[in-house]
Amino acid sequence: MSKHFPLRGSVAVITGAASGIGAALAELLAQRGCHLALADRDQVGLAAVAASLRAHGVQVSEHWLDVADASAIAALPAAVLAQHARVNLLINNAGIATMGNFVDQTEQEFEALININLWGVIRMTRAFLPLLQREPVAQLVNISSVFGLIAPAGQVAYATSKFGVRGFSEALRHELEKTSVGVSAVHPGGIRTGIARNAQRAANIDDAKAARDIRYFDKVAMTTPQQAAAVIVNGIEQRKKRILIGRDATVLDLIQRLLPVRYWALLMRVAKLSARKT
């Protein structure tokens, strides 16, 4: 397998491309000469991102997509091929967050998040893997989370989905090890996007608690989408198997490795001490 992924002249499919990390990835890839098939359910945001990227002289197509819709995913490869003829980079970036403890969430709310965050990744991979396998060099990039490394209270559904993305990516990487398709699992720490403000809220969650959670996220999010995109693109070029984004992700990964059972108690003690100082 080649140790370098050539971005210039490649064709990338990016889900969740209308904002946040997805839009930042699209911008950086366009600057590197990569052609783009951008997918999102926000048609207005998607059109704005696509229009700005065409100035880089690359081919950009727009595709409305709800990654929870299995039939829409199944139809996407044909639509992309009609515009670009090939695909050798797939970035599964679309996802949503959640607020509320497990006991406060309905089964339908839990299932809705899993359908986007985990089934969306699985179905997109199944749909595009045959196209990736045609290429002499191809890369599959799945965005997990720091919550695919640690599992916080209040994030049962989200952690379930992101641990699932991690396990799916690692097992698939082993299956594809001797092929032209590399697999990268990405674990961002806190990224300054609207994911917390746009989070799926459990029906029973208190408005004041939700507001506190959003303020806390905005306070601890250490990395901009542009910084995150730069790390991911660098990782794609180097065909890295595992990409950690942010000092917070690096530290939490280390703590979890050292204290696989007791890391949560330690993190709660640190959080309490920090709260006292502020």
Helices and strands in order, then pairings?
Layout: E1 11-15, H1 20-31, E2 35-40, H2 43-53, E3 60-64, H3 70-84, E4 89-92, E5 98-99, H4 107-117, H5 119-132, E6 138-143, H6 156-175, E7 181-188, E8 200-201, H7 207-220, H8 225-237, E9 242-245, H9 247-258, H10 263-277
Parallel strand pairs: 1-2, 1-4, 2-3, 4-6, 5-8, 6-7, 7-9
Helix pairs in contact: 1-8, 3-5, 4-6
Please, could you describe this protein's structure?
- By secondary structure, the chain is α/β, with parallel strands linked by helices.
- It has a single domain (11-277), classed as Rossmann fold (3-Layer(aba) Sandwich), CATH 3.40.50.720.
- 49% of the residues lie in helices and 15% in strands.
- It has 10 helices and 9 strands.
- The strands form 2 sheets. It has a 7-stranded parallel sheet with strand order 3-2-1-4-6-7-9, sandwiched between helices. It has a two-stranded parallel ribbon with strand order 5-8.
- α1 crosses α8 (225-237), α3 packs parallel to α5 (119-132) and α4 packs parallel to α6 (156-175).
- The N and C termini lie far apart (51 Å).
- 41% of the residues are buried.
- The model is unreliable at 194-198 and 210-218 (pLDDT under 50).
